[in-house]
Amino acid sequence: MQMLSLKASGGQDQTPKAQVESSSSIPMVVLKVFFPSCCSSAESGLLVGHWIPEQNSAVILAVVHFPFIPVQVKQYLSEVRQVTQVNVSVLGTWSNCKKKEESLSEFLEDLGTIFSHEPWIQLCKETDSKFWSCSIIQKHPSTPKEDEIILVYYDQRKVMLSHLHPPGNLTNSTDHKAEDASKLAILFDTVAKSKVLFMKDRYDDGPIKLTHWQSEGVEASIIVELMKQASIPVCMLLTFLLSFVSSVCKSRVLKFWPLCFIWSKLSTCEQLGHRLEHLQVISSNRKAQNQPQLMRKANIFVSLLADVALGILLMSWLYRKNRIGHLADTLIPVADHVAKELQDLLQWLMGVPAGLKMNRALDQVLGRFFLYHIHLWISYIHLMSPFIEMILWYVGLSACLGLTVALSILSDIIALLTFHIYCFYVYGARLYCLKIYGLSSLWRLFRGKKWNVLRQRVDSCSYDLDQLFIGTLLFTILLFLLPTTALYYLVFTLLRLLVVVVQGLIHLLVDLIDSLPLYSILLRLCRSYRLAAGVKFRVLEQKTGKPLRLLMQINPLSYGSVVQTYRLPTYSCYPKDSWGSLCKKLFLGELIYPWKHKGEKQD
């Protein structure tokens, strides 16, 4: 809130030089009055607000109209202080008269003796002028000083409903910026905690009449209230169903080896467990303690609604015009075509691929071994062909659980349909890895070294002639067989990486739907003031002898900051390896698993 850095533009009245020199010996005190713009047309009365002595600022919250009884006003403010924990008091008087009346002015000055507050603020709106007059009365001045008053208008509704976000680089920012952020936070917090004060409108039967942003009527929605009442039994039913499903998932039946292995490796089970946690968060009867928890619940709720809506649209598209049957009829020919292409690839590898001369005996053994697996796979596909349409029909129904569940099932189906490629990759990788580690061990033998398993280091060692002869023989055999093995490993690794890339793109889409804070983005789009990054001030009027009038406007949070701040955590099924680690695994023949290892929870 860099109030003092704002200067009037050219053409405004300037203070004479003699006056500046005469007042240079008197200390200047800047007093800031935050006035709600909704009260600018209110009738004359008392200014009710909160005084912030650290900032020498007054936050006006409401105006109490005439007539009133001072005892009742004090009693009402005492009740408000107990509920809001905000020191709300009468800070001064407000005058809005068409004609200047001396009797009213004297009466307003006399109110300062009844409501003792230091300092006492007197605001007056001049009808025949666009400027306002503001005076500060110090009952017990300690030292003679001159007050410079800055009148700041703010939108009370927007400030109360908005949530101020601290700057992202607050740790690296200067102390001045951190102090400004804390001052703004006190202002926003004061208005937000005074919500009880704004629940009293002019239609209430009571001796006290207030003017604030809801004085014309409390803002409410019949639809929202009906949804609140209907959500109670729905949440109770949902909590019961979720507790039942959770007890089934935690039963001992799922802890046996085959079921627990499948549950931990299938991405569909991971996604269902993730959505189950989201439903438990939404149906919880525990009230959100702060704004981040409330936004997290809202983002999860909107994400679930959007996910289910997209899933229902996908399901309606699949079951229209018998697309399930067409998909089942297309699946078998595609599988046969892929198998035929693999057979042609293996026949090419068993010959002279790219003019390379391979070890014929090993080449024939590996080629026939993989061809036999392809034959088994084709037989399995044709055996399952009568049931594929029925399986796809039931799988399509799972789209009603959400688009992410349908995409996870698609990823698992791709993994099942390409299981023979995965087997080829595992066979080739294991054989290649065995030869790489064998060659490295024999290379250490040539240099008189060995690997110390206990100390995990390479030590010197002396070998006899027989050991060196056998080592040389084995090294020669492995070295000449390595190109044939490496070629098969290279081909099937590329095929495996192609499948992993397709599944990775599907899981990236699932993670995007799971983590995207849709409610926060819609809130930023429709009501940007709800997500405040800071404020800016615009000079309205400035004149010598009159208070400087500023308009405070809310700077909304950027879309990138919204996504970064409110992004939901995800449970990705793929490990996040670096490029260096991935290349090292590929070179050494280590397996690249299509699932995350145990205990790798990723946010």
UniProtKB/TrEMBL annotation:
It comes from the Eukaryota. Keywords: Glycosyltransferase, Membrane, Transferase, Transmembrane, Transmembrane helix. The chain crosses the membrane at residues 230-249, 300-319, 365-384, 391-418, 424-446, 467-491, 497-522. GO terms for cellular component: endoplasmic reticulum; membrane. One of its GO terms (biological process) is GPI anchor biosynthetic process. InterPro entries: PigQ/GPI1. GO terms for molecular function: glycosyltransferase activity. Signal peptide: none annotated. This is Phosphatidylinositol N-acetylglucosaminyltransferase subunit Q isoform X2. The lineage of its organism: Eukaryota, Metazoa, Chordata, Craniata, Vertebrata. The gene is PIGQ.
